[in-house]
Amino acid sequence: MPLRPAVLTSAVLDTADLQDQACALYRQVLGHGEPGMELNPRLLSALVRNGGSAVGLLEAGRLVAFAYGVHARDEHGEYHYSQSAAVAPGHQGRGLGRQLKQAQAEAVRAHGVRTMRWAYDPVLGRNAHFNLDVLGARARWYVDDFYFRPGTDRVVVEWDLEANPPPAQVAERLVVPAGEVDAAARARVRARFHELLAAGLVAVTCGRGEGGGSVYGFAAPARRAGGSDRQAPPRPQEQP
Fold first, then answer.
1. What is the per-residue pLDDT for 142?
2. Which one of 1, 118, 152, 159 has the fewest beta carbons within 10 angstroms of its own beta carbon?
3. For the chain, what is the total number of helices (H) and then of strands (E)?
4. Cα-only R_g, the chain
5. CA 170-174-177 angle, 5° bins
6. Which residues, listed in sequence order, are joined to residue 116 by a DSSP beta bridge?
7. Which residues does the chain have with pLDDT short of 70?
8. Which distant-in-sequence residues (6+ apart) come within 8 Å of 10 by Cβ?
9. Tens-place pLDDT, residues 8-40
């Protein structure tokens, strides 16, 4: 008889035990053993008590995935910035990522916010596909040296929690090569992203290309309720 899939439940990280588990999971998945890459449980407490998000997925009482973020505002309005998300090894590839983001979105809606943003490495096609194609977020900004260190370029996506985007007509494409992407290839990705975003397009999809690389598709922003279009700003590197 086949084993039944484990039941996962979502939870706010509002106990010391869950926060400690989150910090341990962060070190395991994202910390890489580097100094300064730790997650402080007091930060999670502050987020829970002050309009941020700190949510997780539990399997038999143990934390197997979590995400956290902060409330923010800029010239475009209010949004929730999701700083990080992690899924335990051995649980990846089971759809937990989508379930986790939905749990985080539910927590964000409870605070009256209807838009989320987060950043990811533009050369990671699998992450891009999840963000753009699975969730329906849109890549609207490209930020050079996002973490104020060379080699940390990031794409910032925006996820509208109120609507499912309609299929978009791809107007331009960007190919990212397979394997370890060297500095020259990253520079080409940076230049092309800036060019296409400055032209008023947003990245709407990312699929597998020939030879194992990935291919972004760019399109005009979808028309929003009320008849207005949300355009990417003319100099995306200066955004958030």
1. 98
2. 1
3. 5, 10
4. 18
5. 140
6. 80, 159
7. 1-6, 32-33, 223-240
8. 55, 56, 57, 58, 99, 103, 106
9. 999 999 999 999 999 999 999 987 667 778 899
The whole-angstrom separation of Cα 49 and Cα 212 is: 44
The position carrying tokens 């539910």 is 106
Q: Could you tell me what percent of the chain has a pLDDT over 70?
A: 89
For 124, 169, 188, the CA distances from 234, given in Å and listed in that order, are: 25, 21, 19
Burial class (CB in 10 A: 0-12, 13-18, 19+), 186: middle
Give the Cα separation of 127 and 205 in Å (integer).
Answer: 11
What is the pLDDT, as a whole number, of residue 182? 94
Q: Count Cβ neighbours within 10 Å for each residue of 94-119 and write b for 16 or more, e otherwise.
A: eebbeebbebbbebbeeeebbbbbbb
Q: Do 20 and 63 meet the contact criterion of CB atoms below 8 Å apart?
A: no
At residue 85, the 3 state secondary structure works out as strand
- In sequence order, what DSSP letters do the residues of 158-215 get, joined into one string? EEETT-PPPP----EEEEE-SSS--HHHHHHHHHHHHHHHHTT-EEEEEEE-GGG-EE
Instruction: Give which of 208, 201, 204 is closest to 229, Cα–Cα.
Output: 201
Kindly state the tokens that stand for 204: 């709407």
Strand partners, 156: 119, 141
CB 196 within 8 A of CB 231: no
Q: Are 206 and 128 in contact (CB under 8 A)?
A: yes
Residue 98: strand, helix, or coil: helix
Please list the residues that pair with 175 across neighbouring strands.
215
**Cα–Cα distance for residue pair 177/36, rounded to 1 Å:** 31
Rounded CA gap, 119 and 132, in Å?
12
